Structure formats: C-alpha cells, structure tokens
Fold these 3 entries.
Entry 1:
Amino acid sequence: MGIVYKAEDARLGRFVALKFLPEEIVKQPQTLSRFGREAKTASALNHPNICMVFDLGEQEGHAFIVMEFLNGMTLKARIAGKPLDVESVLSLAIDIAEGLNAAHTKGIIHRDIKPANIFVTEHGHAKILDFGLAKMTPALSKIGAAEATLTMEEPLTSPGTAVGTVAYMSPEQVQGKELDIRTDLFSFGAVLYEMCTGTQAFRGQTTGVIFNSILERQPIPPVRLNPELPEELERIINKALEKDRQLRYQSAAEMRADLQRLKRDTDSGRTAVAAAERRVKPPVIYGWWLKAGAATILVLLILSAGLWRMQRRSPNESTELKALAVLPFQNLSGDPKQEYLADGITDAIIDRLSGIHGLRVISRTSMMRFKNSHQSVPEIAKQLHVEAVVEGSVRREGTRVRVGAQLIRGATDDHIWSEDYDREMRDILALESDVAQSIAGKVRATVTSGEHTRLAAARNVAPEVYESYLKGQFVQGDGQAGIEKSIAYFEDAIRKDPTFAPAYVGLAEAYGDLGSLFVGGSPAVTRPQVISAARKALELDPQNAEAHAVLAGAHQEQWRWSEAEAEYKRALDLNPNDSAAHLGFADWLLCQGRIEDALASSRRARELDPLGVTGLQEGWILFHARRYEESIRELRSVVAVHPDYATAYFFLGFALIGKGQPEEAITVLEKTASLMDRSPGSLELLATANAKAGHRAVALRLIDELKQRGKTSYVPAGVFINPYLALGDYDQAFVWFERAYQEKSNILQFLRVHPFFDPVRQDPRFVDLLRRVGLAEQVKDEGR
C-alpha cells in the first residue's frame, strides 16, 4: 500500500525511510485513515524487533511516514521458496516472537503477519513492519489474556469482513470473527512453517480453496518437506497452527519460551543426542531385574531388543513391500512456471519403478489426482491399496536442481527412508535413476539384472532439451491446442538433440492423439508420423517400453495383428505396470474376439490406475460381448465419478442403443455432442440412435451435416457406416465400409465383434471385408 524512498534527515544526520501512498489511492479516505493508523500504532512501539516510526507528515497534499531505515531484505525474499537452516529459523523466530509480545503487551494486534511484513537486517535480526491493519485494544493487563478484545476506535472494516493476507489468516480471521492476539500467533505459525519448508502451509489456486484449507485441512507435516527439522520445532509449528484457538499458543511469550528452549538444546547438541536415542532406544533394566539370574537377564534383553526392533525400525532400514504409489512432487522453486519440472520428475520416477515385475506401482493418471491434496499418507495408501507412498519436492536454482524424496509406510505414516539429491540439470536423468534405485532398494523389491540395467540407465541431457521435452508432456492433455503445442515442444527438443529418444516417444503419442476420432486429425497424415517417431525412439533406445506400446497401437490400426501383439507383449515385459499398455492390449484382444482375456487385461489396468477412467474400457468390452446391462452399469459408474468425461457418455450411448433403448441413448448423446463440440464421432452415434428410434428425418439430417462438413475438413469414412446400418440401407453402408477400408478407419478393427454389424455378417461383402482386414480366421468368440 505504499511507495518507500531512502532519504536523509539533514537535521539529525541519519538515513530514514519515507513511505508515501501511491497516487491512485491517495484520495481514498479509508486508505488515508489506515495510513495514519499505521503511523500512530507503530509510533507507540519502541522495540528492537519492530521497525520504528519517527514522524507523520504531509508534503503538497501527499501524506508520508518517516520510518527507521533498514539494510537487508524481507523474510519473503530471504525464503525465496527454500527452507532456511534451523539455526537461522530459531534466531529469527525468537526475534519475531519478541516483537509480537511487545505489540500485544501494548494492546496492539498486527492482523497481517506474513513474510513480506518481516524484515531481516544485514546483521540477521528480524523486525516487524507494516501495522496498517493493526487493531488497537485495551493494553493487556495479563500477557496472553485470551479474552476477546474490544476495538477502541471506529473499525476500518465492516463486522464480519476478513482482513489480512489470505494464505496467512487464522481460522477466526477467515470467518470474520472478533480477533484477539492469538490470530497473530496462528499467522506466525504459518510464517514459521514457510521458513522451515520453503512452501506455504495453506495453498490453492483460489481464495475459496485456501480458506477451505485453513478451516478444514492440516498442512503437510513440515518434516516430510524438510527431514532435517527437529521434532520439537514441528511440534511448535503444529501448536501455533491449531485451528481451535483455545488449543493454540495463548501468548507470544509462551511461544518465544519454547523457541528459546529449543535453541538452547540445539546449541548444546542435546537435540542430536535425543534424536540418536529415539532411533536406538535401549531397553530399560529395572532394579529388581538385577536380582534375577544371568540367564534370565539375557533372555529378557534379547526379547526386549527384538520387540523394540519390531516396533521401531531404523529410518534407513529397508522393508519388503509389494505395492507403491509416488505422489506428485512439490515444486519448491518459488516459480509456478517450474511446475512442469516437478511433474516431469514424478513421471520419470514412476516410469522407472514401473519396470519392476515384483512391484505394483500406481499409474501417473491416478497419482496426479493428489496434486496439492491435503489428504494424509494413511488415507491415500488406503484409497490406493498400497503399502508405501513416496513423497518428494523439486527445487531449481539456475542450472542446478535439488530433489528431496521420502518413502513413507502407508499404514503408520512412519518414514522408511529419505534422501536429498543435488545435481546439475544436465545430470537430471542420472538423478532420476538414483532416486528410483534407492527406492527399489529400500522396498527390497526383487530386481532382475535386466530391470537393474534399465533402472540405472542414464545419460547427460542438455537442460534446454529436457525442458522442451517436459513442457511437451505438461501441455499434451489440454485438447487439440495442447496437442499441437506439445508437438512443437517435442520437435524443438529433437532439433536441439536428435539422439534424445523420449522426445520421439512424446511426438509419436501426440500425433496418435491428434489422429484420434474425437480430435479429428486425418490418419493418413498422423499415422506415418506416429510410426516414424516410435521407430526412431526404438532405434535410439530398444528398451523403451512406451515406444513399443505406441508402435503396437499403430500396427493395430493398420491391421498388422501379429506385429501389434508382439509389440504389446514386449512393452508389458519391459514395463508390467503400464496401465495404458494393458488397456491397449485389452483392445487388441477384444478385436480378436477374446472377450475374457480382454476383460482380464482391462482389470489389471484398473488395479494400476484405480482413480483413472479404466472402467471405461470394461464397459466398452462388455458392450461388444452383448452384456449390455453390465456395460451400462459400468459406464454409469464412470459418469458418476467423471460427470464431464465425454467418452464415457459416448460409450454409454453405444450400450443403450445395443440394449434397445435408443430414446434414452439420444438424451445421453445430445450431451455427448455438446461435450465433444459436435465431433464427427458424436454426430455419427446420435444419427444411429435417432435411426433406431424411428426418427429417420433427424438421422438423415445429421448424416447430411457430416457430409457437408467433410467438404471443408476431415471426416472419417467410418462414421457413416452405423447410421446407414441403423436405417436399414445396407448398400449405402457397404459403400462407406469400402471407403473406410481404403483409409483404414478405426472402426474396422472391431469387425469381428461389433454388435451393430450383426445384420450383415452373412453378407458376402462383409465376409470378404473380414478377410481383407485379417480377421477372417475362426477364433473362438467367448462373448457370443
């Protein structure tokens, strides 16, 4: 709210700071009142940990405050997204507590304690700034008095209005309640949390999300973000952040005493001794034991040590685990634009661990749902049915990147292992490899020699190459515009380093997405790009599981069934935890008529991606098996969890038509068309449903809309087949079957099993088409 100048007091020969109001708000009475209030409030305080105010003046209509001049920086700048060392934290925190205690004793509540309002001098002392939101109360006759305070002057805000800075507000401040000194202590706790971790205790994209976190959620335990923190410091932070102010610190003096006690113990080395004692706690031998025989003592010692070992594992001791989840790593760089780096490192670690056959690793799709979540580790572990969870953070500083990772037991929230890694960006792949190898070692997973080789595989990569690659991944799922941006990023990475295989994999996947039915890219353009990029990736890295899976999908679309099967199997051999590859293989099995095998592969994908939309595939398979009720039930459950997921409505439309409920299908498919911006696929199925419902004119109008659109943009030939079959115009359907064959339309993959093709299965033209597509072999059809 102010502009500050360095000035010289010519009379007293000293430097001072002059704080003026900005031009645009100088005429606002409320702001002027608050400005004067700041001067009067702060001038009543004379304390080494509060910035002193010397005078209040006016020059040519401009009000200003004359303040103590300070050399240094704000605490916000000092933190800069990085945790401070414990010694600095304690020293500064004690200063802040001293300053708050002085203000509270004078009856002043600051109400806007945050890192930007605390100054760290060049000598390392803290001073509290900016009393513009301060509240004057009767001077406290008893330090730490918990009674609600009374305002002595006309309030600057209306009753029930929250004041302060959102992320540091107390619960009672958020609710607009009457405040007392304990609101400052909560805000101080939030500042202390940030000093210790480098990140805010309460975060969110909107004010509402932050308010909800303050009122309802506990912040991530500080020690998870900074394992070096003393246990007592975490306790102090937690007590300051108690949501019930009756359970919080009742005075700054009380909080200061705990901080001073911890500093004393830390300085004397007692904290280190206590930590060692916690890690290896010897059995206590009471006096009466000494009267027992030597053999009895020995037995009791062995039993005691054994029980202790069972109950309190050393943090560095490995443990045998079968199922693991990697939470999205936190971006602690202080720059939201670095989010792609944290997500990319998370993906890379998941990908490396997924190559271990003896370990179930939850997929990225499910794990990204926990990004910025405040759920506890036990809650997450229970939801995902895993035994352990990996948490981590990423901090980038220029050309260096620092990664902290912790392995936490799901049931008990105990730390099994933690470690920090600090590397140059060019060594980022080696860093990811080291993290994954350490985790694999700590969970005692059985790792074959081939898996170990893949885990350890790393090479140097130029930072600008890896950044382009990660940015391509980061934007890839954001619709057609996101796909096109990702292609540009991947191509940029390839230009900078033509030997970087992951960029080719990303490019192949992006072109595959662009060529999908729903986006509408022409397969004639996109498929060669997919195949070329995937083959180049495998030429550079034959062990790349993703590249094998992408190539398998491309082979399947071109009806190279045996090549597709071989590539899927190779992909799953290299990465048995790849849910996308399991889904792709399920699709291949479905096309062969192997319904039960397809369901098994789909269910395996669901185990690996329990929060994703893998139930969608099961619904699609059940539709082709003519198990319509099961299909509808499965797809409705997907829609219930993902109410705006267009593909779920699309597949539900198929199942409803199959069950003979075209009118209900029309309602669903109108929503589908809206969600898909009237894509060719959505209009195809809407036309089919109308034809089945007897609305012939509507169906023909939709077919005509598709034909008109095809004159200016790509419309797959396959979208005309089902509407004409539903209308009973089989000759027209075969015209479009033939055109679909010429362009290798996706729908022809399902010739053997698709229920809508049943009316023409005995037609010689259809039998010939099956032969040409490579699906004429007599394979047992388990679904019919």
Entry 2:
Amino acid sequence: MRLLFRSLSPYWIPALGAVLLMTGEVVADVYQPLLMSRIVDVGIRTGDLPFILSSGFRMVLIAFLGLIGGVGCTILSSYTSQSVGADLRERLFTHVLSLSFPSLDTTSPPTLITRLTNDVIQVQTFVLMMLRMMVRAPLLLLGGTVMILRLNPSLTPFLIAFYATLFLGMGFLIRKGLPLFNLVQKKLDGVNQVVRENLAGIRLIKAFVRGEYEMGRFRAANRELKDSTVRVSRLMSGTLPLLFLSMNLCMIAILWFGAHQIQGGTLQAGKLIAIVTYLTQILHSMMMVAFLIVTLARVKSSIGRIDEVFALEREAEGEPTREERQSMQERGEHPQARGEKPPEGNPQKLGLWPISSPQEPWSVEFQKVRFRYRKGEPVLEDLSFRVEEGKTLGVLGSTGAGKSTILALLLRFYEPEEGRILINGVPIHRIPLTVLRRRIAWVTQNPFLFSGTLRENILWGVEGATEEDLQWASRIAQVEEFVQRFPEGYDVLIGQRGATLSGGQKQRISLARALLKKPSLLLLDDATSAVDLATEASIQEGLRSLTGTTVIVVTQRISSVVFADSILVLEKGRAVGWGTHRELLRRNPIYQDIFRSQMEEELQNGGT
C-alpha cells in the first residue's frame, strides 16, 4: 500500500480537508439523535414548546452544517482521487516507455493496458471511497458506540457480540476474497489479449476464414472471466447477507432489552429512540465497512499488479564508472551521468564527446560480440566487423542469422553478453541513450504509422523541419512518386496504421521519416522488401548521395546490397563472408549460392 500513500502525498492538503469536512458531517449526524431524545424526554413529556422549538432550530442548523461538510468533502475527495489517478497513469506510462526490452519481452501488451486502465481506476475509486466512507464509517461506529454506552451502559454485552460478528465476517471475506480478485484480474488480461490480437490481425483472420476459431478463443477467455467473477459474486452474496442478518438479530435483541427497561422505569423512551437511531447509523456504517473490505481486497490486487510494472527493469542510461569518468576526462571526453542533459552546442568543438554533429557520419565497430535472448542459444557468436564513417554496409543472411539483432544492439535495445560495440571509438554503453538514439534513424520491414496525415507521419520524428526538408526526404525515399496521385497531397489522411496505403508506400514513408532526422547512422532492416526493383534502385541511388550518414542495410536480397561499400554475410550468428559484391562473388561459396538461387528465382519469375 506504500504506492497508494506515495501517490497521495502531493495532495495531502485537499485530502486532509476532505477528512476534516467529513468529520464535521459525522459529528453533526451523531449529535442529531441526542437532541431528538431530549425533545422527546424533556420537551414533549413536560409540554415545553419553547424548548422543542429551540432544540428543533439547533437540529436544522446542525443538519445544514453537516450538509456543508458533506458537499465540501465530496468536492475535495473527488479532486484528490482524480488527481491521484491521473498522476499514477502518467507515472506508469512514463515507466513503461522507459522499460528495457528484456523487461518488455516478459510482459504482454494486454496486461500493461489493463494495469494502465482498469487497475488505476480501481486505485482511483478506492481513494475516493477512502476519503469518504473510510472516514465516515469508523467515526460513525465510534461515535454511535460512545453515545449508546453513554445513554445505556448496560448494553455493552450486546455491542461486544455485535462487533465480534462483524470482525469475524470481515476477516473471512478478506481471506477468501483476495485470491479470487487476483484471479479475476488475470482473466481480464486474457480477454484483453484475445481482443487485441484479433483487432490487430483482423485481415489475416478474414483471409484464412478463421473467424469461428477466434470466436472460440474469445468465448473460452470470456467464459473463464465470467466464471471467476461469478465465484466472487457467490462469496459476496453468500457472506454479506448472513453478516447483515446477524447484525439485525443483535439490533432486535437490543430493542427487546430496551423495551423491558422502559417498562421497568430504568430507561426513557427518548433515549431508546436515540439508541435505535444510533444502531441504524452503525448498521449503515457496517454496510460501508463491508463494501470497503470488498473494495480493499480488489484494490490490493490492483496495487500489487501496478507495483509489478514499477519493479520491471528500466533501460540503463549509460552512466560511466568512476574509473571510466577519470579516463574520459583525461581524453577530453564528457562523462555523461545518468539523468543529466546532453551538453548544448557542438560536442566536438566543446571537447566533450568524440562524436560528430548529426550532419556528420559515425563509425561502427563490433569486437567479438556474443549475444543471446534470455537463456536460448547464442544469436550472435564472436562477431567482429567495422564500418568506416560515411560508408554503407550490407548485412546478408537467411532468417534467424542474427541480422536484425545487430541493429537492436546498436540501438541498445539489448546489451551484448560478451565483447564490445564502439561508436567513433567510444564504447556504446558510455553514450547516453538520448544522444545515441537522436543520432540514429531506424527503418523496419513492417513500419508503424500513426493515424493522421501523411505529412504528420513524415515530420513525426523531427521538430521544426521545413517544407524543403520534407521535399528532400520524400524525393530520396521515392514518396513524391505516389503523393502526387492524392488531391490533398501530403495532407491526405492515411487511416489508422496507414490502412489506406500499400506495404511499399508505408516503407517509403517510414524511410522518409528516418532520412528527415539527417542521422549519423541509418539502420535499414529489410526496409525495401515490399518495394519493386525499379523503385528500390532509385532509393539506392538516393542513399548513395548521402554524405553525412553511415548506412547499415539488413536484408535477404542481394539486390538490396549490391551498391554497398562492403557486405557482411551471416550464418547462424557468425560472420562467414566480408567484402564487396564482386569480391564475394569471386571467393565466397555461401554468397555465390545465395546469388545463384536468387538469380534463378528472378529468371523463373520473369519467364512466367
């Protein structure tokens, strides 16, 4: 529950105000039956009309003050709960964006969505109830008990039995209810996962006519959620009525005992009326406590699930050790610490980082790099190569050879298990992530486009880009070729995830977005796989004109790397070839086999 109190701490003033106002309302509610008993026992019994009127006026005034307290508490508690919910969602979303990829690999998107929405709403609702019911119920219990004992101390045994029944029932609810609420949230994750997968893959489902199969998956997940929820409902519907029945029996016993005292002349009627009113208030507070116990069990589950997300490992920011700082300072480098902002101006002129401005290329070097995902087989093994500034490297290999993993390591999505990666001679882990990733542009085989216009998607990665920049990037990426077909031009709406565009058009837009950054290092991961050969040749010609960028092209097609200054051939994570296209054709059997098979395939396709 520490998460809850940390979230409440910035809003302690309105929270305290809500508690004080609710206390005022409870004091008014507790004082009212006492005034009523005096009206009955003094005013009505003696016929003292002025006393009745004055006491009635005080009851109205106290009720009005209680109304002010209740309304004020509602306003402040609503503000506090909404603020806590908004802050918690923002903190959680910010933390998710900062998670390392190994952490993201262990957590599915549906469960993150559930925790960002449903679980935060549970916490938000609980804060509202805590500042109202959790203050009101105990105060009513305490105030009503004190007033009953003040009016008739002989009722103490009945109240002990009353509270013993309450606490036993509540303990049973907590012990049995908490595991069930955890199960309900997990089943809700399962439903969200099926829905998300079906919405994302709706075209594939229709193309393979698998609607009935997916309906079966959803039906099973939905049934599991329903069964878990029904189990919780059965527990609540079976326990709470029995609890309320026992409390009502206690109230009947108190009324019976009080009636006998009135007949014996040891208790006045007004006091019995006040006692009954206090018992009613206590019973209502018991109902609130029972509801709070149920909510507490659920919110405890939600807070635990949110804490699990906050416990996931974040990306390392590249903080050097003390020895590394001293060594870097001796070389005139800037030992960027975690959380510090990158230096302003040109880092090279300031003698900070031995890394050029975004307009100048980087060199990249892998030294005996070894990497594996979790505990699987190594994806890269003893991999070494170097790309000079401004040069283009093609990485060729079959599926699973480790090509895309090279790009993931350069972006520091993952850290190598062994070996080093150098950028301009600097170990990559010493470079702050913001510096590193702002200088790198990455284009994937399946690009992600946002809903909005084509212009907004191209300009998405660069603030303050001009129309001239847009035209330049679009020309190299061959976006101009199809933009002219739209009457709206670059302002055409492309739909969610570019639904109105072809795969090749999406890739070209993604490439233009990357080129607009004018990066020091451009990473292309099968970025032209959906583009025809003529358009790909035009894109390659445009990429050759880039003088301020080092380019790494990952592909399975030799036609995509023919223009490269050097080509790295991978097989099962190991380098099995290095050189230009002509050199590899001359002396590398694996490259020759790939070239021969692709040429035969193209000839067969051309002949059909």
Entry 3:
Amino acid sequence: MELARELDRILAPERVRTRWIDRIAYANDASVYRLVPRAVVMPDSVEEIRGLFRLSHRLRIPLTFRAAGTSLSGQAVTDGILVVLSRHWRKVQVEQDGRRVRVQPGVIGGVVNQQLRKYGVKIGPDPASINACMMGGILANNSSGMCCGVAQNAYHTLASISFVLPNGLGFDTEQPEAHARLAREAPSISVGLLELKARVEADSTLRERIREKYRLKNTMGYSLNAFLDYVEPLDILAHLLIGSEGTLGFIAEAVLDTVPDYPLKYTGLLFFPDVPAACSAIAALRDSGARALELMDRASLRSIEDQPGVPPGIRELPANAAAILVEYQCGTAEELEQEESACRELLPSLPLVEPPVFTRDSDEQAALWRVRKGIIPSIGAMRRRGTSCILEDVVFPLERLAPGVAELQELCARHGYHDAAIFGHAKDGNLHFVLTQAFQEPAEIERYDAFMRALADLVAVRNGGALKAEHGTGRNMAPFVATEWGEHAHRIMRDLKRLIDPEGLLNPGVILNDDPRAHVADLKLLPTVAPEVDQCIECGFCERTCPSRDLTLTPRQRIVVRREIARLCEIDSRSPVVAALEADFTYDGIETCAADGLCAMACPVGIDTGRLIKRLRSRSHSAMAARLARLAASRLAWVEAAARLALRTGRLLGRDLPPPSQAGLPATSRRGAAAVYFPSCVSRVLGPDAPRERPLAGLLVEVSRRAGVPLWIPEDVAGRCCGLSFSSKGLDAAYSVAKNATVEALWGWSDAGRLPIVVDSSPCAQLLKQAGAELSPGNRGRMTGLRVLDSIEFAHDEVLPRRPPERVPGRVVLHPVCSVQKMGLAGKFQRLAQACAEAVDVPPSSGCCGFAGDRGFFRPELTASATQAEAGEVAGQDYRGYYSSSRTCEIGLTRATGRPYRHIWSLLEETTRGPGSGAPGQRPGIDAAGPSALRKVAGPPARDPR
C-alpha cells in the first residue's frame, strides 16, 4: 500500500496501522457517525506531526486528530489519516505548588485531577466523562461540565499553549519571542488575524451578539470572543484553538490555571410539581451559593426509578414532576455551615412536593449523584437493539429555561421521541436530552433530519440560545452554524479556517460544512452481534481500564469489529475483508483479552466484554478439548500434583517459571475454628519466590492464631477449585464441574454456612461469591447461605481489631487487583496497609496487570503493555515493600517492575510478631469495621459435618 510506505518514512512501522482490523476499530467514536480511515498512525513527537502535515498536503489526504474518541458529535472520525494521540502524549506536570498544571493531549482528565488532589485543586473543566475523555478533547471542545460554568472552562483557565499549525510552524505562547516569531515567520496569518479582529470590532451588532452568546455556555462554531478578548495575534490564535475541534492545528501541550477542589459538600435532592416550578427555584438556589444545580424532568426520573439505591419516593411522583440535585461545596466547615444555613432559610419558600433530604455523608452523596448520572446508562440499556443513543446539549437563557424545556418536550413528542429524557446543568441553562434513534430505514433518517432542523429553529432562533453548550459543534450541528450565528459571523469563521488551513485538509466537515445534510450523512449502524454487548453505546468509557488498550484492542473496539463482521456477513460472508477481520481478531480480540471484567465497572450500561470473549473462546475448543477439560476438573488433585511436577521440571530446564509449592499445608484444628480457610489452588501449587519465604497458607494460619480467630484448613481441600482457570478459557462445562464440587464442599466444611470461608486469592474469592448459571439449582441455594470472605476483608474486619500491628517505617506500595476493585475492597486494602506501614502508595496508573490467571505465561506482552505505566511509577520510588493479593498478579508485577511483590498478609505477619503489636482495641489507620463476619459464631464448637 503506497500510503503505508509513505507513512513508514515518517513514523516507526509499528506505529502505522493499515490492516482492516485497525481501520475498523478506529472508524467509530461515541457519536452516531462512522468513517473508515485510510490509515491509523500514532506519532510520539512534534517532528512526526510536522511530517504528517507535509504528507497530508502533498497527497491531499485529510488529517484528523483523535484523543480518547469519546466525542458525541463526530469530531474524531475520518476517511483520511487518523492521528491517534492516546498511546503517547500522556505527560502531566504539576507546577507552582498546584496553581498550574502542564498537560499533553493524550492524558485522561481524571488522571490530571488525581495528580492535583493532594494540592486541594483540580482543572476547571469537569465534564461527566472526565474519567474517560482526554485533555486533547477537553481543550479542543472547550469542555465544561456540572460546576464549571463559563468562567472555569478551558478557554478561561488557559495559561499557555504549545501548538503546530498545518503549515508546520510551531509556537509556544509561554516563550517571550513567540509573538515576534508569528509576525516574522507567518506574516499572512498574523496580519489576517488582525484583519478579522477589525471586521468583528467594526460590526456593533456582531460585537454585542458575541458578548451575549458567551455569557452562556457556547461551543457552536469558533471562539469568536477571542477577537474581542485579546489584542495580540498570537493570543487570539491561542484562544481560537480552544474549541476548534482539531480543525486549526495540533495542540501539543497546554498549561492551565487550576481551581479549588472543595473537600466539604452538602448535597440534596429537591422534588417539584413540574419543570416550570423547578426552574423558578434555580436563581434563588444559585444565589444561596449552590455550585451544582442538576435539573431532571419526569422522564429522566422514570428511567432510573427502579434502580438499586434510588429514593423510593421517586416512583410515586406526579406525572409532570421534576427534580433538582443541589450541591454546595466549601473549603472550610464555617463556610459550609453558612451555606447550609442559607439553604435551610430558602427551602420553605420553594414549591416542593416532597420534604427535602440533604446530607454531608459522602456515600449518601454518591448515591444521589448516581440518580443524576444513571439517566444516560439507563436509557441506553433500555433502548431497542440496533438503535443508537443520541445525547445532545443545548442552552437557553435562564429566563427562557422553563418555556424552553416545555417546548423541547413538545418537540420530542411531536417527532415521535416519546422516550426522550431532558436533564442538565440548570444553573447555566444548559440542558442535555437523550433519545434513541434507528438509522436502518430512510424514513427514520428523514425523521431525525426534520427534528434537528426544528431543534435549530427552537433553540437558536426563537429562544436566543446555543445549539451546543459543551460537546462541540461536530458534524451534527455544522449545517446549523449560520442559523445560530448569522451570515456575517459565519463568513468570518470561514475566512478564519481558510487563513489557518487554506487546503481545508484538517478535520474537514467539522464545525463548518457546506452540505446541508451533513448531520444525516455517514451514519453508523449498530447490528446485533451478541446479547452480552448489544447494548453498547460505543462511548469509550471502558477503554481506560483495559489492559490491552496499548497492545491490541479495547472492549469498545472489540465490539465495533464484531459489529462490522456481522454487517459484512449480511452482504457477503465470503468477503476477503471478513476473512481478514476474523483472522486478526483471533489474536487482537480474543487471545489478548484479559477478560477481567473491569470494563463493566467503567461502562455506563455495565457491559462486560470479557463475557463475549469467553463465549468466543468456548467456540474455538474442540469437543475433545472440552471433554479433557471436564475430566481434569473432576480430577483436580491429580492436576495439582502434575502442575507442581511440571514447574519443577521446567525450572530445571531453565524456564522462567515460579517455584512449585514445596511443603504441605499447615496442620490446623476444626475444633474452635473461627472460620474455614480455603487455600486457592494457585496457593497450593505455586510456592513463594524466595527460598526461605514462608508459604502463604502458613502466614494466614499463624496471624489468625495470634489474633485469636483461628482458621481451619479441611484435610480434603486438595482438588477443590473455584474454576477460574476454566471460566477464563471459555471451558464452561469444566468450570461448572469444578465450581459445583467446591460449593458442595464449602457447604459441608462451613457447617451449612455457620462458619465463614476465607479465601487467600482475591480473584478466587470474587468468583466464588458469584452464584451464576454454572451452579446447579441446589448449589445456587447453598451459595446464598455461604459467607465467602476475601482474605483482605477478613484481615481488616477480624484480625486488626484483635491484633493491631506495629507500623513499620518507610513507604510501601500496593496493587489492588481487578477482583479487589470489583468486590469494593480497595479501601479496606489500603487501610489494612496503612495500619501496618508508615506510608502507603497506590500508583495512579495501577489497573489490571494483564496476567489474567495463566495468560501472562503465554502472552507476556499483554502484561508488559498493561503494566508499563505502573512499572515506571514504581521504579521511580524507593519502597520497603510491594504488596498485592493474588499470586499470579504478584508474578506479573514482579516481572514488570523488577521488584518483589508479595501477598499483603506477609506484611501483616511481619507487623504482628511482637508481644504487644499495638495497644489492644486500637486500630491504627483503620476506620471502624462493619458488623463482624464472626459474630454469628457462638456457643459450643460445631459438629464436623463429615
């Protein structure tokens, strides 16, 4: 391919992707648009960016920059060259004691805030997607959010910016000589910007229109306010790049002023008889100091009223009711008390239909925010298969908000969008609405077109609002820029684009588009492929958690490729493209998927792509392989012995394998035991790395004895397994055999659930806690009566109160494995370590290590890629210990970092050796534990059920 050869001259070949699977994987963003790029490239330097600009101009191929690809408006797709920034460009540097932060475009916004948290500050933009979207998109879309308003968006908090123009010239506004360089090296641009500024200033009507429109949130078109706010051409250009959606240049780096991250919050949910009543309260609530005011109409509330944790009164609200989520945020207790007082004084005057409920409790606040944030995923999950979920954002002047909502509701109903939900940042007059739309039939496309044209008239013409508040103009609103701004402003925007990008090759069709039907062109279809993933809305939120994201595909991309295969198969199943996709998907999609389930935690609709991959793996197994696996599951004691022998033999042959377990399990007594200890098969097969290090089972037994909560290991534990190794490979029948046998054994060992069961490997504990279709009906019932405890929660809740440790000096580092996060034990894991060590770190990049049981032995590149960032963070520090809670993950992390990772119980054993080990009854570094899992243990020792 000629283009590939040209690109190979600019970038390293491994960062040039032209296979069908790569092009299809990046053909979609979070919007309803789809374009297949001719090539996907991943530059890592400004010089490579310049080379791409030169190639684009020479071959006249469009160029589009993509960060996270979470765009809801189609800014991150192209049929030209797609420049992916998410693999590199991830640097964050905190400056001036947190007053400023320097960022590159490929770093996730939430990661930036994580770095800033210890300074008590954050970046100004606070989009709901901040844990998925990247700084390139936040800057290029001038993102805002729930509390950001207008004053704290990217435009107003920009301190300096480094960028490259399509002509290859680069400028850094932080450099004193940059202004003179622009005039000297790009005189036509410098003079042209001043001429555009003069045209804006000469039109008094346009001047006032710009001022009025930017008092509201507004990302429709280019940031024309830059021509009024700044004098120097470079300053004007720098602020035009904010909100330019990648159509004017490449943003290489930006420095932002930070804003306070208020630690104290007072949050409540207010219910009103209807939307006008809710809107009537907004000004008063805002003036009382509320920083967040989130309006939700009845359809929004109805979409989440049956979800767990939602206040039950929502179901009984009147048909036209509305709600406002209110939050006050303060830096000191005195300030919060003042704002609480102002709120209490105001509430009696509001037309509420239910008593207001406010809270300072962080868990209760999180539950209230889940009400607001659950709207989009709820509607996405309920939509009919094959339909798209469309999220739009508009702005009404605050005085027009109530009638604007009513008119918008009527417009949705008139065009058949009866499931539309309207909600948003009421303090700013910014409304989001979600609707579902199918694009398979021409009539459906025409319905959407008619709706969009009517929407433009309703918002921009009749109510003086903005068609885009914070998501960027994109492809869906580009045909309506002139409708909102008028012809004079539209001409200035066109002249600006020609001035900076005269060839029109940089992200064409976005912001400005000559096609009046661009919003209904290049629409993507969502064919059904599998029940596990059909509800995917392709938002990309899952990608940050995926261990293979920098190696092969992400969960979203796996789904996108499967959808493309399904679409092409309907046309011609023997197509060479289908064959190429299927062949490459074996490695990229199946073999390098860790199937860890973390994607489901980040997914708005809870999709676990690993479930699909496991099913695809099961299809690849022959009948003979399935039978052999089932036989192995029924003879696991033999398998364990064979595995230890294989490890011993492999190490003698010089293979890089962990040592086998050398000693048997420690002797324990059933009489007086406080809990059953179920050592995982991994713990029974794999020994510690250091020859003199104590096996894990010995640590748990000894420390529990010291704490007075002795453990009992059943004598017939050999051969019992949670089935994880079978489940991850899609060997469903073998998984069922292993887990059913284990549940039956646990039921007997625990005296029908009287004793809790402690598991030393977090992945095994998490899988055992799941009672799924793999269990027989009888064992499903038994499972509900069993209390399975991960060793972390047993240590935190039962050992520490009885045997407080002596803290060791220095710092330790933790790796919370995937299952710890899924079980919600990351907090207890950290508090457990804090009770044992002077200082505890969790690397910002810690996530799934990609070892995935035994997959790391066969696909070490997956672990190497997944842990690269975390390994860099760990290597740069001096720790006295490295701890996790899964033996295989410890192996992967040790290989990645070159540091010896051990189980957290080894730290607990070390710090509880002394006679006192802390004052009795004190729990250093530990919050009060919840109800003890052992409190049900009372009376004489239980009968041995065997």
